Every structure is written in C-alpha cells, then in structure tokens.
Amino acid sequence: MFKPALSFDDVLLVPKYSEIITRKNICLSVKMNPTQEDANKQIILRSPIISSPMDTITESQMATEMSRLGGLGIIHRYNTIDQQVDHINSAITNGVQNVAAAIGASGDYLDRATALHDAGVNIICIDIAHGHHILMKSALHELRQLFGESIHIMAGNVATRQGYEDLVMWGANSVRVGIGGGSICSTRIKTGHGVPTFQSVLDCSHSKYAGDYPIIADGGIRTSGDAVKALAAGADLLIFGSMLSGTKETPGEVLMNKSGKEYKIYRGMASPQAQIAWKGKFSSNEGVVSSVAYKGPVQEVFQDILTGIKSGISYSGALSILDLQAKAKFIKQTFAGLGESRTHIHNKSL
Ligand code: XMP
To answer: Which residue, 107, 134, 113, 137, is CA-closest to 125?
Structure first.
C-alpha cells in the first residue's frame, strides 16, 4: 500500500477545553538554536514568521519590517554579491539584529557566504530546491570549516524525515521542510515529485532531532489556519511567500491593471522569468509568475496572521507553540467536511 500523505485541507484540529482568557497571554516566541546554552548566543524570534528568500519577497525593506514585527526576513541570493551585501548593510543600518541571507550550494557560494559573514550576517540559509543532495552535504561541510559554530546555518528544502536528519547530521542548525507545495511551484507538475508540506512536517516531527533543530514549514501555507496546523504538526517556524506577497515592503513596483486595480508581481524562483532576470538564461522551468493585488503595508497582513495563529493556539487550550504541539489533536476531514469548513454562504443576487 502507498503511505497516505495528508495536506492541510485533509485535517482539522479538534477544539479543546481552554482556560485562555485573552490571546495576549499567548506567547509565540521561538528559539532558533534551542541547544545553545550561552544566553548571549541565543537567537530568539518573537513570532515564528519568516519571509521567503525570493526576489519578489525579501530584500532589505522586508527584512527590516519583519525584524521590527518580531519575525525574520531572509535576503534572497538572486543578485550579485555586492547587491546582496548592500541589502544587508541597509538592513543593519535600519537596526536589524538578526540578519539572514541566502546562498546556493555551487558556483560562487563560498565567496558569497564569506562576504555575507563579513557584512554581519548571523544566519545563512543554504537555499536549494532539492536540499537532500550531495552538494548540500559538501556546502554544509565547507561552511562549518570556514565559520565553525559562529553562524546559524539554515538549510533546505527537504521533504522527508531522512532528509531532515541528514541535513542536521551534516551540520544544519535548522531545516526548511516542504517540496513542491508552494503557491508558485510547478515542481510536482513538471517532475512528479513532492510531498504535501503538512505530511513532511509531521514526518520530521517524529525525528529524535525535533525540538533541538527547528523544523521550518515552507510552501503551501495559504491562511493562518494552515499556519496553526503546521505548528501543531511540529513546525517551529514558518516560511511565507504568497501570504506576504503584494505588500508594500516586497521588492518591485506597484503596477496598475486596465481596471485601475493596483497589483505587484510574485514569482517562483525556478520560473524562467526569475532566472532570466537573474542570470540572463533559464535552465529549469518549475515555477510560475503571478500578479497579486496590492496589499499595502506588511504590518497589517502580519498582525492579521498573528491574530489568527494566537486564536488557533487558544482553541487547543494552549499557551505557546510547544504547548500547542503537546495538546493538538488532529482529525481527518472528509470532502464534505472540507466543504463545510470553507465559507459557503450562497450568494443570491440582490
Ligand atoms: P508559498 O506557498 O508560501 O511558497 O508561496 C513559497 C515557497 O515556495 C518555494 N519556491 C518554489 N518552489 N518552484 C518551486 O517548486 C519555484 O519556482 C519556487 N520558488 C519558491 C520556496 O520554498 C518558497 O519559500
């Protein structure tokens, strides 16, 4: 038999007895390096939200705002080293404490990592589509040789518990989990490969490393409800692309369509358009380009997501993410249940 693989829409959390009087009592803070005993070296975020290292999501403006709001922004790598360093400098000027930036696992990645480190980055994200790979193994080895334990290394993406455990054993401090579930991904269509992000997170959460090496759910989180399900399944942190797309702080102009509606571009990094913009040609085609309605400042979007997450945690009678993970009870919902779960008012013309 095939192993069942559940998606966010396949499950619901069962509401539990709660003594939470106000959502203000719910703590969303997360330790990115739980095994670190030296308090001065701990990296603690006030909320578990990370903006994706994509060229239409995170440069210095988004990184700055994410930091101010208690999350983290990872400055993307689809530029020259100098351009990426400029973004880092600007974020550090703006007062960003935890500066995160992405690199690849081939080409100039070591020069890039060194430049990022010299510029003051304390979190480096090895950002490759198929992270359970020999290039990841050698990149992690090289980075540890260069920097020892002085930087936090986030690595990914992987889809399986074996992938998560191998990346931890190869030297990663935290792992991005999710392949092919992103809103702009066409990897599953083009390659037939992938695992629903919810299932990947659930599988990784059963690892002996879970709790010490953060699991970062990445791809396919569409609502704060999905975010709560990912956290309850074992994710410590969440990476958002589409949820933050179209906001003021994302790179790119606000455009206007023929009906006068404002929008911005959000695109997959494996889309031909993104690759051509970056290196003048494309070698794969596993992502799409989309226009999204302009959403205004990210602060409002962020607060709305946080409100939903806190409300979700309180429905499980929990006070924190760890408490949620201990108390969460999932049920599988039927197709009819999914219909009921969605807003389903029948609109009658007035
Ligand atoms: P969401 O659903 O939040 O997903 O928009 C964002 C995540 O999608 C991944 N990503 C891609 N995956 N082709 C893919 O298969 C792509 O072109 C692509 N671009 C981004 C990435 O993990 C991101 O955080």
So the answer is: 113
Per the prediction, the chain carries an average pLDDT of 96
Is 164:179 a contact under the CB 8 Å cutoff? Answer: no
CA 22 to ligand 1 center in whole angstroms: 35
- Domain layout of the chain by residue ranges: 18-339
Contact between 77 and 92 (Cβ < 8 Å): no
Q: Which CATH architecture has domain 18-339?
A: Alpha-Beta Barrel (3.20)
- Which of 39, 63, 66, 61 lies closest to 121, judged by CA? 63
Q: Which of 191, 269, 282, 295 to mutate to test the pocket of ligand 1 (most atoms within 8 A of CB)?
A: 269
Q: What is the distance of C-alpha 158 from the center of its chain?
A: 13
Residue nearest to atom 24 of ligand 1 (CA): 52
* 236 CA from centroid of ligand 1 (Å): 19
pLDDT, tens digit, 9 for 90 and up, residues 42-73: 999 999 999 999 999 999 999 999 999 999 99
Q: Give pTM, 2 decimals.
A: 0.97
